[in-house]
Design brief:
294 residues, TIM Barrel, two-stranded antiparallel sheet, alpha/beta, 8-stranded parallel β-sheet, binds NADP nicotinamide-adenine-dinucleotide phosphate
Length: 294
């Protein structure tokens, strides 16, 4: 099956579903990405900070697919922010991926306390875009205030903002800001992966009674219901799995529809509690790490 696509604000098409590889250990990443590509996924989302770009590139080569058929996305880590450092970060990622060109390169986080470095990093992305080294550029974990500052100081509107979105944390304010500025939302932890380890009132989204009820009504799984919720609300999704049956299950979401009441019922599960780091609190001191050369 060919994957439905969404069109980014610069006219580049991106598959509506991609394959995430955060916390896929390097030794299991190649097999997982090969399985995903054989299943029909044509977009892989990795990051310099995940330590598995090399294995993603290896899977693309082993798949036998033309490089042009696979949409490769990666992220620059905060330790490599700054104009020259970010240009070098492209070389590191491209070298590890074994790709001359990266389809979508994004800043992994804003550095709110050193926003001048975030701006300089983004200007490097603009340079790479102008030079044809990347087909689109964007950001991740940018809150409306970060995006407003970026839009005021740079020339290219980010194609995407990759943010935490799942039924327990919808970030409606960020979604509204992004769509108002032509920025596509990519939902990370789309089936609530980050909630699986959470203590307290809300555990895993996979066990939520409301989601289970909707899943039963459609003869589907909770993961498939959550992925439909995103897709029908216009978000791109990047579920991660290293389990072949789940890789297939997560891709099999294009032949059923949720009703408006079901979408609203999932919206209503929002707890307002973030699973990932607070974007405003990200600093190089707390989160910096060395990104090795290719
Ligand atoms: N930009 C950022 O800051 C950021 C942060 C986090 C994630 N991301 C991106 O978003 C991607 C997805 O996020 P995520 O990995 O946190 O969460 P996720 O995709 O919502 O969930 C992944 C977890 O769910 C399990 N799983 C997958 N499919 C399943 C299914 N059908 N049924 C039951 N369990 C299932 C996986 O286990 P197995 O693998 O063991 O099957 C894994 O533990 C990442 O891989 C990464 O590319 C970006």
């Amino acid at each position: 099956m060919s994957v439905p696509t969404l069109t980014l604000n610069n006219g580049v098409d991106i598959p509506a579903i991609g394959f995430g590889v955060y916390q896929a250990a390097p030794e299991e990443t190649t097999a997982a990405v090969e399985t995903a590509l054989a299943t029909g996924y044509r977009h892989v989302d990795t990051a310099a900070a995940y330590g598995n770009e090399r294995e993603v590139g290896e899977a693309v080569r082993r798949s036998g697919l033309d490089r042009a058929e696979v949409f490769l996305q990666t992220k620059v880590w905060i330790s490599d922010y700054g104009y020259d450092a970010t240009l070098r970060a492209f070389d590191k990622s491209a070298g590890k991926l074994g790709a001359d060109r990266i389809d979508l390169l994004i800043l992994h986080q804003a550095l709110p306390g050193e926003f001048h470095l975030t701006i300089a990093a983004y200007r490097a992305l603009e340079r790479l875009l102008a030079d044809g080294r990347v087909r689109a550029i964007g950001v991740s974990n940018f809150m409306p205030d970060h995006l407003a500052r970026l839009l005021a100081e740079t020339g290219v509107v980010p194609a995407v903002n990759q943010i935490e979105v799942h039924p327990y944390f919808r970030q409606s304010d960020v979604l509204a800001f992004d769509s108002g500025h032509g920025v596509l939302d990519q939902a990370w932890s789309p089936i609530g992966g980050i909630t699986f380890y959470r203590d307290g009132g809300h555990g895993s989204t996979l066990e939520d009674p409301r989601i289970l009820g909707i899943a039963r009504a459609h003869g589907r799984t909770p993961a498939q219901v959550m992925l439909r919720w995103h897709l029908q609300q216009g978000r791109q999704v990047i579920p991660k799995s290293v389990t072949p049956a789940r890789i297939a299950e997560n891709f099999d979401v294009f032949d059923f529809e949720l009703g408006a009441e079901e979408l609203a019922a999932i919206d209503a599960l929002d707890t307002g509690v973030r699973g990932g780091p607070e974007p405003e609190a990200v600093t190089r001191e707390a989160f910096g790490m060395d990104i090795p050369e290719a």
